[in-house]
Design a protein that fits this description.
The protein is of the alpha/beta class and 335 residues long. Helix content is 30%, strand content 24%. It has 11 helices and 16 strands. Strands 1, 4, 5, 6, 7, 8, 15 and 16 form an 8-stranded mixed β-sheet that branches. Strands 11-10-9-12-13-14 form a 6-stranded parallel β-sheet, sandwiched between helices. Strand 15, helix 11 and strand 16 form a beta-alpha-beta unit. The protein is globular, with a radius of gyration of 20 Å. The chain starts with a strand and ends with a strand.
């Protein structure tokens, strides 16, 4: 075990009951179990999922109150537990590290994190930029690479291209040489275009219209749904016959698979939280984040950050901003 001196207590934002406001509390610094590292958290990314969990709506996250929420972090390793050889004190790391399944979240000054979930922070990104990436990049990678095997020359349609997952998925698909198209509202189209995708205003073009316009009626090789609901049904309509693949990060609710079956196409669901909930497959998340770091350092990946700067004590403001839709890009809390 390797360690450097740290504090005995830490500040954390605690949710005592679902739907309540956070309370700032002083708590003991977590102790390390085998295979864990203690991270001094510098920045914590807020995701829409975090707000659902806070409201008590994220039952699939299996988090009980009282709890410290927050999935994503970037920070500095201060000590390593038994069996950890991949990191040492002083390393700058990032990862999707907690906030579900009884794991302590990232709205705190320190967290004990399974080393498999972490990777070295991209050298050319700030702590805030790194903290914005883990959940959205892992989701994009599992969909486009692990499930759909994206490759050069394919036409990829991303629903919700200006969103947290969507804007990263555009960059990821382009890095594999795909031609990328992305839907959005009229105000988000300039951002989608700036990321290198062909923007599609879903309010002004029907699925049939944009499939005809951009694929000659053939359909897209991959359709990545980051929106869910009716958009997943539209994805089945937009995908190519036989070899087409629809991937969704929000494949909940009731959907008829008939349109997909009649095309002989494929559907895959993504549940990014599974490794943290089951303890199985966590190393793959660390591996994915190493891929993200490599792309970022080559200039092919950069998260879009909201301009506001929030402290730990202001985390509540961030959650309310996301719930109201008044956020551009990813919102990050400085710890």
């Amino acid at each position: 075990m390797s360690t450097v001196q740290t504090n005995n207590s830490m500040k954390a934002m605690v949710l005592e009951n679902f739907g309540d406001a956070f309370k700032l509390k002083e708590l003991p610094v977590p102790t390390l179990a085998k295979g864990q590292v203690l991270v001094k958290i510098i920045a914590s990314g807020i995701n829409p999922l975090d707000t659902k969990i806070k409201r008590g709506e994220g039952k699939h996250a299996k988090q009980q109150v009282p709890a410290i929420l927050g999935l994503d972090l970037a920070g500095i390793v201060v000590s390593t537990g038994e069996g950890v050889t991949s990191f040492q004190p002083g390393d700058e790391v990032y990862g999707m590290a907690g906030g579900i399944g009884g794991r302590q979240g990232t709205l705190a000054e320190y967290a004990a994190v399974d080393a498999d979930l972490l990777a070295l922070k991209p050298a050319n990104l700030s702590m805030q930029e790194a903290a914005a990436l883990p959940l959205v990049f892992i989701t994009a990678w599992e969909g486009l690479v692990d499930r759909a095997n994206v490759k050069t020359g394919q036409r990829v349609l991303i629903h919700g291209g200006a969103g947290g997952i969507g804007h990263v998925a555009i960059q990821l698909a382009r890095s594999f040489g795909a031609s990328v198209f992305a839907t959005g509202s009229s105000r988000s189209l300039p951002l989608i275009e700036s990321l290198g995708a062909t923007p599609i205003d879903y309010n002004s073009l029907s699925v049939k219209d944009y499939v005809e316009k951009y694929t000659g009626g053939e359909g897209f090789d991959i359709v990545f749904d980051t929106v869910g609901g009716e958009t997943l049904d539209k994805s089945f309509e937009a995908v190519r016959n036989y070899t087409g693949h629809v991937v969704s990060a929000l494949g909940w609710g009731s959907h008829s698979l008939a349109p997909l079956s009649f095309k002989g196409a494929t559907y895959s669901g993504i549940f990014t939280l599974l490794p943290m909930l089951t303890g199985k497959g966590m190393k793959h998340h660390g591996d994915i984040l190493r891929e993200a770091a490599a792309l970022a350092e080559k200039g092919q990946l950069k998260p879009l950050l909201d301009k506001r700067i929030l402290s730990l004590e202001e985390a509540e403001i961030g959650f309310k901003a996301i719930e109201s839709g008044a956020v551009t890009g990813k919102l990050v809390v400085n710890i």
